[in-house]
Amino acid sequence: MLSLTALLSAQPFDGQAAQQEAAPPAVPEKSLWDGAYTTDQAELGAFLYDTHCSACHAPNMTGRLDANGDAFPLVGSEFWRRHEGKGLNETFSFMRTRMPLGMAGSLPDRDYAAILAYVLQANGYPAGMTALPMTAAELAAYKFTDFPAGR
């Protein structure tokens, strides 16, 4: 028979062990080069981009820097410089909280994900079999990386 002291000493007093057990498992890092969005998703994104984004970021995604404000390029070296090494969750969150200009957060998450899929496609990332996710943890698993050698 166990003593009361033995039972109490086996229990965590600060709840830290219980919290550690309840933590969700980390999502393993994934490569955008393996396909993080579907072709259908990017096609919808192209339509939505034209409707909600092209007036500021230009139809060819080169951006506009003018007196009305800066709409940075979404393709090319300027885009890479701003995003390399960052998780897609950061870009998705920025889009949801700041875009479209003057109407931030006005689109459903599905539309923001489709527009991001279109941006990925425009930057040469290939389509895959699974749609781009919309949760921060799943998006964080994908990082913007430069075109790897040998591809």
Structural class: mainly alpha
Mean pLDDT: 83
Widest beta sheet: strand line-up:
1-2
Number of strands: 2
Instruction: Report how far apart the termini are.
Output: 65 Å
Number of helices: 8
Any low-confidence stretches, pLDDT <50, length ≥5?
1-15
Q: Which geometry do the CA atoms define? A: globular
Element order: H for helix, E for strand? HHHHEEHHHH
Helix content: 40-55%
Percent strand equals under 5%
How would you describe the overall organization of this protein?
The protein is mostly helical and 151 residues long. The chain has a domain at 28-53 and 86-140. 46% of the residues lie in helices and 4% in strands. It is built from eight helices and two strands; from the N terminus they run ααααββαααα. It is globular.
Secondary structure elements and pairings:
Blueprint: H1 4-10, H2 16-22, H3 39-52, H4 54-57, E1 64-66, E2 69-71, H5 76-83, H6 88-98, H7 109-122, H8 136-140
Antiparallel strand pairs: 1-2
Helix pairs in contact: 3-7, 6-7
